[in-house]
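Structure tokens
________________
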Amino acid sequence: MEYRIADTSLAPSGRGKIDWARRGMTVLSLLEARHRSERPFEGITVAACLHLEAKTACLLLSLRELGAAVVAAGSNPLSTQDDVCAALVERGVNVYSRHGMTTEEYRENLHLVIGHRPTILIDDGCDLVALLHEEYRELLPSILGGSEETTTGVKRLRAMAAENGLAFPMIAVNDAYIKYLFDNRYGTGQSVLDGILRTTNLLIAGKTFVVAGYGWCGKGVAKRASGLGAKVVVVEIDPHRALEAHMDGFQVMTMTKAAAAGDFFVTVTGNRDVIRGEHMALMKDNAVLANAGHFDVEISLPDLRSQALELSRDKVNVETFRMADGRRINLLAEGRLVNLAAGDGHPVEIMDLSFAAQLLAALHIKDTSLSPGLHPLPESLDREVALLALDAWGLDLERLTAQQERYMKEWRE
């Protein structure tokens, strides 16, 4: 065993968290039980760069139970839970991460993971894939393929594929129905509000809540904020999404107009510098800024620091910047993913669906000869997860009659 974690003695606490999560991850458990006897990943090394918390641990342990050698790095310094890492090491997973690791440590950990010469990858943000292509090209022929969990990661993979630079197949799990319809919408919606509420202890009802980006994640955040009584404002660059937000009952503004009105701001765009210095100059006293995009670049931290005269930390995961005119702007979780850095991430049942899809994607990569490039999760696997969830949750699905099936295939009157 090789590992680089904070403290192996924290394992008992981590075991409790993993056991709690496993109770709600029924689909992943069903898939593990189905394939356990055949141990399909025997001889395979799976390398993951993911948020290392209890739900992720369930996926990694399922892969190990099915025969894989598993090595993992944390994809975010503030989302890594040290007790979960200790419990994973105890169960035979090679882990390289600690809560609060520096950027340099993060990069070192990715190199240590690659040192295990992985054959299948599970990435969150494309950093593992990018590093392999940049610095370990001699290992590329030995990699069967991988899968990507996030919108930001898929965007980077598309850019690589467009340049014919992707040397092995990658499955865009993020783009599967079972992922974005539930994880991105219901998962992000609930977990972002959870992170904000547990960090600030402020009232949402009656406040103006600005959501930058109205993709599936933004839709979820806006819906949950509205459900708590907020007046929701959406900032968008896409005309169709802006119209959709309008018809969903939300105000649509530019960030310049929204900046003066907002009490809470959440960025969830996948782009950089969404909230800049000119916006911060217009904000109310005690405005709260949070990011739910993958990287900590959506809120311009250099602009915020350059405008502030004083910085205080009166609460965990809250930095208060005092401006020259006395206004205070509060930044949550250092501008990193607020739902994971200041909370426990998506609900257990949501990640059960996403990680079941990741397990099936890994099996598909192992069993199928895919060409290099970006591939969708096969529709049959996407549907399989949904059907397993319906069965596990005791929900009944209507069936077409034979006559209805014929009617759907016929073009004549």
